[in-house]
C-alpha cells in the first residue's frame, strides 16, 4: 500500500511541481498517471523513491513513513520500490542475467558486488522472471545486443527481482514504438497480477493509459485533477487535465 498525503514539491527555482497530492494505491492495482509535460508526473515518482526531497506532506509505503528516514533506512526502503525507467538504465556491457541480478542489490551502485556469487535462490528467481517477461534463453546476451522492447523487459525483470512492495514505471514506453509499447503495458499488468503488487505508471499516451490501467490519476500543473477508473475518464475530464495545451 502506497499512500501520499498532501504531497508537495517546490523546487529551489520556485517551480511548484506538486501541490497537495493525496492518493492511495493498493493491492494489484495498475494505476496510470497522465498529464501534460511539466505537470509533475516524474516529480511525483521521484518523491516516492526519494530522488527528490518533498517540500510538504507524507509518503507511506505499508508501515514505513518514507519522508522520515535516515540514509541507511532509505537504502532499505528503496529495496521495496521497484523502478522502471524510460531509458531502461541498464548496464550495456553486462549480460541480461547480470542486469537482472543487479536488482537484488537495490540502488547501491556497487558493481563490484555483481562479481561475487549470488545465492542460488536469487539466480533461480532471476530465471523465473526472465521467463515471465518473455526473455527465456537470453540470459547470456549482452544488453547492447537487444532491441528497445527487450531492454525494457530486462528493466522490468530487474525491478521485480527485488520483490518490491510497489512497482513504479516512469514513462516506460516513451522510447518504444506503438506495438512494443502495448506489449510492455500488457507485461506490466501481468506483473501486477502475477506478483500481487501495485504498479504506478507515468505515461503521456492517454490511449495506452485507458487501455491498460485500472485507474487513472490526472495531474495538471502539480495538482491532482482526476482520480478514477479509465471508463470514467470523459472528454470533459481530459479537457481539465490537458487544459491550455
Ligand atoms: P512531468 O514529468 O509531468 O513532465 P516534471 O515533474 O518533470 O513534470 O516537472 C514538473 C515541474 O517541475 C515543471 O515545471 C519542471 O520544469 C519543474 N522541474 C522538474 N524538475 C526540476 C528541477 N530539478 N529543478 C527545477 N524545476 C524542476
Ligand atoms: P521529463 O518531462 O521527462 O521529466 P524534462 O525534460 O522535464 O523531462 O527533465 C529532464 C531533467 O531536467 C530532469 O532531471 C528534471 O528534473 C530536470 N529539469 C526539468 N525542468 C527543470 C528546471 N526548470 N530546472 C532545472 N532542472 C529541470
TrEMBL record:
SUPFAM superfamilies, per the entry: P-loop containing nucleoside triphosphate hydrolases
| GO MF annotation: an example | ABC-type phosphonate transporter activity
Q: Which InterPro entries match?
A: AAA+_ATPase, ABC_transporter-like_ATP-bd, ABC_transporter-like_CS, ABC_transpr_PhnC, MetN_ABC_transporter-like, P-loop_NTPase
Superkingdom, natural source: Archaea
SMART domains linked: AAA (SM00382)
Residue limits of the ABC transporter domain? Answer: 2-245
UniProt keyword Transport present: yes
Any idea which UniProt keywords this protein has?
Answer: ATP-binding, Cell membrane, Membrane, Nucleotide-binding, Translocase, Transport
List the signal peptide residues.
Answer: none
GO cellular component terms listed in the entry, alphabetical order = membrane
Q: Which PANTHER family match?
A: AMINO ACID IMPORT ATP-BINDING PROTEIN, PHOSPHONATES IMPORT ATP-BINDING PROTEIN PHNC
Identification of the protein by name: Phosphonate ABC transporter ATPase
- Organism name: Halorubrum kocurii JCM 14978
Q: Highest lineage ranks of the organism?
A: Archaea, Methanobacteriati, Methanobacteriota, Stenosarchaea group, Halobacteria
Amino acid at each position: 500500500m502506497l499512500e501520499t498525503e498532501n504531497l508537495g514539491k517546490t523546487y529551489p527555482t520556485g517551480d511548484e511541481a506538486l501541490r497537495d497530492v493525496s492518493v492511495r494505491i493498493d493491492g494489484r492495482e495498475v494505476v496510470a498517471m497522465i498529464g501534460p509535460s511539466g505537470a509533475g508526473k516524474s516529480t511525483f515518482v521521484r518523491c516516492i523513491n526519494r530522488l527528490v526531497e518533498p517540500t510538504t506532506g507524507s509518503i507511506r509505503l505499508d508501515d514505513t513513513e518514507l519522508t522520515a528516514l535516515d540514509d541507511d533506512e532509505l537504502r532499505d526502503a528503496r529495496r521495496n520500490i521497484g523502478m522502471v525507467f524510460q531509458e531502461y538504465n541498464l548496464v550495456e556491457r553486462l549480460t541480461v542475467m547480470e542486469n537482472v541480478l543487479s536488482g537484488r542489490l537495490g540502488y547501491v551502485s556497487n558493481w563490484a558486488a555483481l562479481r561475487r556469487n549470488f545465492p542460488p535462490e536469487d539466480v533461480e528467481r532471476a530465471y523465473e522472471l526472465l521467463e515471465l517477461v518473455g526473455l527465456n534463453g537470453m540470459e547470456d546476451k549482452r544488453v547492447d545486443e537487444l532491441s528497445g522492447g527487450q531492454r525494457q523487459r530486462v528493466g522490468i525483470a530487474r525491478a521485480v527481482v527485488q520483490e518490491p512492495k510497489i512497482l513504479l514505471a516512469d514513462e516506460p514506453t516513451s522510447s518504444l514504438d506503438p506495438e512494443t509499447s502495448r506489449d510492455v503495458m500488457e507485461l506490466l499488468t501481468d506483473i501486477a497480477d502475477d506478483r500481487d503488487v501495485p504498479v504506478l505508471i507515468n505515461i503521456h499516451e492517454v490511449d495506452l493509459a485507458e487501455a491498460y490501467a485500472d485507474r487513472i490519476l490526472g495531474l495538471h500543473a502539480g495538482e491532482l485533477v482526476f482520480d478514477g477508473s479509465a471508463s470514467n475518464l470523459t472528454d470533459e475530464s481530459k479537457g481539465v487535465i490537458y487544459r491550455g495545451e
